[in-house]
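User: Predict the complex.
Assistant: Input components as received:
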Amino acid sequence: MLAIYKKELRSYFTSMIGYVFIAFFLVIVGIGFLFTNVFGKIANFEYSLSSISFIVVLLTPLLTMRLMAEENKQKTDQLLLTSPLGAGSIVVGKLLAVITIFGVGMAITCIYPLILSKYGTVQFGAAYASILGFLMLGAAYLSMGLYISSLTENQVVAAVISFIVFLFTVVMDSLGSAIPTDNVTAIIMFTVILVVVCVVLYLMMHNATIAVAVGLVVETALMVVYIIKPTMFDGSVAALFGWLSVLSRYNQFSYGIMDITGLIYYLSIIVLFAFLTTQVIRKKRWS
Amino acid sequence: MIEVKNLVKRYGNHTAVDDLSFTVEKGQVLGFLGPNGAGKSTTMNIITGYISATEGTVTVNGLDVFEEPEEVKKMIGYLPEFPPLYTDMTVREYLDFVADIKRVKKSEKGQMISEIMDATKITQMADRLIKHLSKGFKQRVGLAQAIMGYPELIILDEPTVGLDPKQINEIRDLIRELSKNHTIILSSHIMQEVSAVCDIVMIIDKGKLVISDKPENLSEHLGATGEISISVKGDSESVIAALKKIDRVTKVEERTRTIEGIVELTLNFGEKDDIREEVFYAMCDIKAPILEMQTMKMSLEDIFLKVTNHTGEVIQLDYSTDMEKNKSEDAEGVNTDAGDL
């Protein structure tokens, strides 16, 4: 794991992507700081970070696109997978390396609250909680990006798909509030999602029976719940979309709140996608 | 050391490896031979645990590749068809990384890396970026990677592709050297290469084992052409007449004469016969001394083409009985041209 971590870290700095990312990130944070804190004469650094939080969506695909895709393309995955390393240590090593790059950028932003404290009263707790939250937000997107990168052997495809998926997680929140909240819409929405899940299941397993069976069982369960207790669907679509909205979770941090549920939420995303990536790697053996 | 049993690999409807079974003993060098797409790489990928088999088992030192992949992978060094190189690293960085992932002890690492770089003759390239190396050097770096950690079993998929003749010889020498302490499986579609370094040759075609034997035996068994080349001192007409008297000779053909007074002929006779004695006495009778006589053998290349011919027919050979007979023939010093290879 350490070997993979060192190798990835080195490759970010030999290929310039590491420098470019950190430089670009700091420029954006600097602009946010200039407009929010300097021009706005506010000593809350968390406002700056929340004003530029969308750039995570733009920049993280740059870091993750080559992580697995390049291994697949250069066939170097053959070296890794025939070495005594497990899929788990490959994924963890890579993920930690890319989080480290992001972390270097975040570490530098830690200076801003100190600068602000010279000119006004800074609530350090709130400021540093927002930096921690931002790091976790970034790590969640990096984990998703790593997963997407493992699915393809083309860096550009990985970057584009990551970008589209990330964009979805941003608009989820407003999308969820735009959809009618009545129960019939809810059950239709869930059915549509179920169909999509079943199609994906079929594509992954090439087994029509299992896909259809899962679809029927879950749909029956939905119907039963709907008939017995329709109120359970109240607001469920908005809640689901809200749950998928990775970026809006960060809002709590920008109000200066150390949101433990938010941290756990991000941690779960990181672990979930890291796990899915190991599964993609293991599955390769069976294709 | 390695036991492969009833290995099958299917991709959809296509069967890449079809019921392959073999064993390799410790210290042996096994050569996989087959045309492109015969299933050589697939079999190697299965043994190394890179892909799984549809059916069948592979055990290395008694450990199942499927059940205990990490233990088995520790014992194997693998050079795949395309050397898995990180092109933006220098050779030394790359080998250092490989040593790390193969869990070479820190204390032995530096020593081992320089030893291996010496053995594969890449020391002068140690600090160059791999992307700037020529194909031959990349191949050698790949080979160095496979040897790293000195695993018990080294698997090389077409190790000499892209090398010039001098490098090929060097790599062969290296493989011979390694074979003293390691078990080696290598693949090739070049017969010569396999026969030069391997103890056992396995010819596979369309995923099936066609034949497996020592390289010299292959030539002995499949190489019989029923032809003798002979040079006799004497008058051509009387020599040919005398030879035609021998019952089993079907054809006598005179080759272009190079030296005056010496007849050079090619005799054809029924396959699997030996008529050299008759030829000798026939020549004695007419007092024409034989200067040279050689049974013609197919080259291993030709045998390879013969057994992998794409007419779809399976060549049946009764080996078990022939093996013994063959050994005694060897003892009598049958003249073959297999040694030229």
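The mean pLDDT of chain A is 88.
Let me know if you want any component modeled separately.
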